């Protein structure tokens, strides 16, 4: 969604960018096995630091992330987008 920010009103595009940045800190170690903004491997395994309120907590670069809170934040963002916030359709790559 961030790559197509022009499809949304500026306030929504800003929220999408902020969410992407927040998620990138947690996504990079799990998806790419490296820390955000740093090349090379993470030199350790990703592990759960806590099981709190039926949720996993992770610590990445000294910052704690609660899985349920992260999912709730994404759902909140998506639910906040109204039809008027969508300015045009996202481009779709041609199928081969």
Give a written overview of the molecule.
This protein has one domain (2-85). Helices cover 38% and strands 16% of the residues. It has helices at residues 10-31, 67-80, and strands at 48-52, 55-60, 63-66. A three-stranded antiparallel β-sheet has the order 1-2-3. α1 runs antiparallel to α2. The radius of gyration is 16 Å and the shape is globular. The model has no long low-confidence stretch (mean pLDDT 81).
In short:
The chain has 96 residues and is α+β, with helices and mostly antiparallel strands.
Cα radius of gyration in angstroms: 16 Å
What distance separates the N and C termini? 23 Å
Low confidence ranges? none
Strand composition percent: 15-25%
Characterize the largest beta sheet: strand count, sense, and whether it forms a barrel. Answer: 3 strands, antiparallel
Helix count equals 2
Q: Indicate the overall shape.
A: globular
Q: How many extended strands?
A: 3
Number of domains: 1
Q: In percent, how helical is the residue content?
A: 25-40%
Helix/strand structural class: alpha+beta
Widest beta sheet: strand line-up: 1-2-3
Task: Compute the average pLDDT.
Answer: 81
């Amino acid at each position: 969604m961030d790559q197509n920010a022009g499809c949304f009103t500026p306030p929504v595009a800003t929220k999408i960018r902020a969410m992407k940045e927040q998620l990138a800190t947690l996504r990079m170690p799990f998806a790419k096995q490296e820390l955000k903004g740093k090349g090379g491997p993470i030199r350790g395994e990703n592990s759960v630091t806590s099981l709190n309120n039926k949720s996993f907590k992770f610590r990445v670069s000294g910052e704690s992330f609660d899985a349920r809170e992260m999912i709730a934040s994404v759902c909140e963002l998506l639910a906040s987008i109204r039809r008027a916030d969508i300015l045009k359709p996202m481009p779709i790559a041609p199928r081969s």
